[in-house]
Amino acid sequence: MGGFVSRGFKGRRRAGPDQATRLPPGQYAEPGFPVLTAGPTPRIDLAEWRLRVEGLVASPREWTWEEVQALPRSTFEGDIHCVTRWSKLGTSFTGVSVDTLLDAAEPLPQASHVVAFCYGGYTTNLPLEDVRGGKAWVVWEHEGQPLPPEHGGPARLLVPHLYFWKSAKWLNGLRLLDHDAPGFWEGLGYHNRGDPWREERYWGD
Amino acid sequence: MGRLSWRLATVTDVRPETERVVTLALEAPDWDGHLPGQHVDVRLTAEDGYQAERAYSIASAPDGARVELAVERLDDGEVSPYLAGELREGDQLELRGPIGGYFVWEPGRGGPLLLVGGGSGVAPLMAMLRRRAAAGSRVPARLLYSARTLEDVLFREELERLAGAGDGLAVTYALTRAQPAGWTGYARRIDAVMLEEVGWRPGERPLAYVCGPTRLVEAVAGHLVALGHDPSRVKTERFGPTGVP
Questions:
Q1: d(C-alpha A98, C-alpha A139), whole Å
Q2: Nearest to A13 among B50, B100, B221 (CB)
Q3: Interchain contact A2–B (C-beta under 8 A)
Q4: What pLDDT is stored for residue B76 in this prediction?
Q5: Do the Cβ atoms of B44 and B51 come closer than 8 Å?
Q6: Among the ranges B31-35, B72-76, B155-159, which has the highest mean pLDDT value?
Q7: Confidence of residue A17 (pLDDT cuts 50, 70, 90)
Q8: Mean pLDDT across the stretch A8-19?
Q9: I need a labelling partner for B51 at 20 to 30 A (CA). Which of A28, A87, B19, B226 fits?
Q10: Closest residue to A39, CB basis, from B4, B78, B234
Q11: Does B103 touch chain A (CB under 8 A)?
Q12: Chain B window 37-76: which residues touch A at a Cβ cutoff of 8 Å?
């Protein structure tokens, strides 16, 4: 819809060149960390908590809280982008690389996609290549503090190069498949992949 | 389903609701209708091409090409001061939608209905109540609505008219900051006791929709689950300022 101008709208220009290059189209920088979820925040007892990698893997794995803490730690530092248009620049999360988990479970050659499944019933789907090669984490610390329940604690998936609904809260595990299987929001009008730089917000974008 | 394309809507009415909130009535050509609870994306474009986009819940029931948004002016906002202060009847606005398929209710989904709203978070709940009334639905419904003062209650006259229709809707206010003289209603934030008194018993299996600032939504959804309500029947939506720690 080229050429339309909102009469009298000036807008607030982005604060600096840093924001101009780091904000994907249609996003604004949010200093806080908004909470967005579709239902109640589940309360999960750490003694009962498990992280699983299953499906098309040679050796399905399950970690307890203590076991996952003993895995090699990995920290992400960078930006996150929510489909509701806020981005949080220069934040950090610590946990374990998804590569470490997948290496332990040994994906079968036919595995092409992954479904993240969560306490509370949430799911989201990703191509396997979007969670391999240092692009995804399972995290339990945010900026050096334990991840609060409303932000997905005990642990959430972190896939910062995609819109943040892919970074599933209250993660219970990853299931590897040989086909794509749309998750919760992907079945309710949101884009199947969700690349913020291509502004893949909704079906058909 | 095809791409949700941007369309140019025309402002047909600007109605002040409270000191900070206006209802924008829009005429959106070729609007395909919406479900109560859905939202739209709004895009503003400055003369030099700079754009800003935000999401707003639809407050109106489905009604042809007409779409109403309730916009709260946030003092430090970029888009809301324009929408709630600058826009006039006859102006145009780009929007696309409707968006969101989870926080939605139609009379056919049944009830009983428990709607809990805080501040301008009542907007999508209002769309549900307006749809319920327009459809002549008798699904039992209770709205528990938290506002700072009685003057901050959106759609008050209409809510009281709807509640007076005798079709099974009850409206309860919780006024958190100041109350009129002689106020006998709740004068505190929504808590578990209030939800027990106003809400349905868990055995009645209500469908709950909770919308408002994060603190309210987290607290109410947590209380409902602790009271024994089925978490899968509690749907939440955040609304209003997002700057939380």
A1: 10
A2: B50
A3: no
A4: 85
A5: yes
A6: B155-159
A7: low
A8: 76
A9: B19
A10: B234
A11: yes
A12: 43-47, 50-55
Instruction: Tell me if A80 sits within 8 A of A167, measured CB to CB.
Output: yes
Does residue B244 carry a pLDDT above 60?
no
| Residue A16: predicted pLDDT | 66
Does B235 lie at the interface with A, CB-CB under 8 angstroms?
yes
pLDDT bracket for residue A193 (50, 70, 90): very high
From A42's Cα to the closest Cα of chain B, the distance in A is 8
Please write the tens of the pLDDT for every residue from A95-133: 999 999 999 999 999 999 999 999 999 999 999 999 999
**Interchain proximity B54–A85, CB inside 8 Å:** yes
- Contacting A residues, span 176-195, partner chain B, CB-CB under 8 Å: 184-185, 187-189
Q: How many CB atoms lie within 10 A of CB A151?
A: 19
In B146-205, the residues whose Cβ lies within 8 Å of chain A are: none
Q: What pLDDT sits at residue B242? A: 45
Amino acid B122 reads V
Tell me the Cα Rg of chain A: 18
CB-based contact A41 B1, cutoff 8 Å: no
Query: Which residues make Cβ contacts (< 8 Å) with residue A89, sequence separation at least 6?
Result: A18, A19, A22, A23, A29, A79
Residues 4-63 of A with CB under 8 A from B: 4-13, 26, 28, 30-42
The pLDDT confidence band at residue B245, using thresholds 50, 70 and 90, is very low
Q: By three-state DSSP, how is residue A62 classified? A: strand
In chain A, residues with a C-beta closer than 8 Å to the C-beta of B231 are 39-40, 42, 120
| Partner residue opposite A40 with nearest CB, options B45, B99, B231 | B231
- Contact between residue A156 and residue A138 where contact means Cβ atoms under 8 Å apart: yes
pLDDT in tens, A31-68: 888 888 899 999 999 999 999 999 999 999 999 999 99
- Report how far apart, in Å, the C-alpha atoms of B7 and of each of A66, B3, B28, B240 are: 53, 12, 7, 24
Q: Closest residue of B to A205, CA-based?
A: B3
* Per-residue tokens: B57: 């819940």
- With tokens 């993660």, the residue in question is A171
Residue B29 contacts A where some CB pair is shorter than 8 Å: no
In angstroms, the separation between the Cα of residue B108 and the nearest Cα of chain A is: 19
ipTM of the complex: 0.89
The residue whose two tokens read 């932000």 is A151
Q: Which long-range contacts (CB under 8 A, 24 or more apart) does A65-72 make?
A: A65/A154, A68/A96, A68/A138, A68/A140, A68/A155, A69/A140, A71/A96, A71/A100, A71/A101, A72/A96, A72/A97, A72/A100
